[in-house]
Amino acid sequence: MDGVLDVLHAAVTSPWFYVALFAVATIDGFFPVVPSESMVITGGVYAASGEPDLALVIVLAALGAFAGDHISYLVGRGSGGRLLARARPGSRRDKALAWSRRVMDERGGLILVVARYVPGGRTAVTLTMGAVGYRLRSFSLFAAVAAVSWAVYGGLLGFVGGKAFEHDPVKGVALGIGLALTLTVVVESVRFVRGRSRRRAERSAAAAGDEHGRHGRHGRRGEGAEVGEIGVVDGAAALGVAEGAGTGSERGAADAL
Q1: How far is CA 231 from CA 94, 108, 129, 239, in A?
Q2: pLDDT tens, 92-122?
Q3: For the whole model, what pTM was predicted?
Q4: How many Å apart are CA 6 and CA 8, to the nearest integer?
Q5: Could you give the CA distance from residue 17 to residue 125 in angstroms, rounded to a whole number?
């Protein structure tokens, strides 16, 4: 065990750790299978003992996240034209694209910041924002807010764990990652409950439209309820609430939409 700790200490306190941290945070932006958050937390834990430097850990993690988000955005933008060309007017994909574009225009910045803390969700959101043509200037602004807040959160979380277990960094890392997982579970639980309530409301609205149609007032279902239901289902997938959405490729963008 002591040998493993010595290797871990040597790796985290090496100057090459900064390079690896930036690279991993960048890759995680468009290929969300690398442990960027765990790496930031680990850097924060060891920073409590003096090395690495906490400020550098936060800065490089934020820069890497910012760069990775932009790569994902550009992949989405590059595939967006082809997605639009394949979307037949009135089709589910066409409605999903329209719904996603409208939602992103209204509150895309908030969605981007929140998605930074949802595993896999950040990639689905950045791909979608690129595909629907979200303004690059606005995207960069909110991506910067998301990256900095995420890096500060991860670095300080690890630092707190490192201070609590200054002579046992493994426990410090475990505490930091445990707190991060707890926050993720809370966020996902709230999102699940809200999504279920929203779907229930949509079903109620659709049922009301059916009842209205059966009474023959207009002889058809309410168009707004139908479009709303399709938009919520397909748009939710576009925003990455389906697990595993977004692979950092054109296929990922197409699946998300």
Answers
A1: 10, 16, 16, 11
A2: 666 666 777 788 888 888 989 988 887 778 8
A3: 0.67
A4: 5
A5: 29
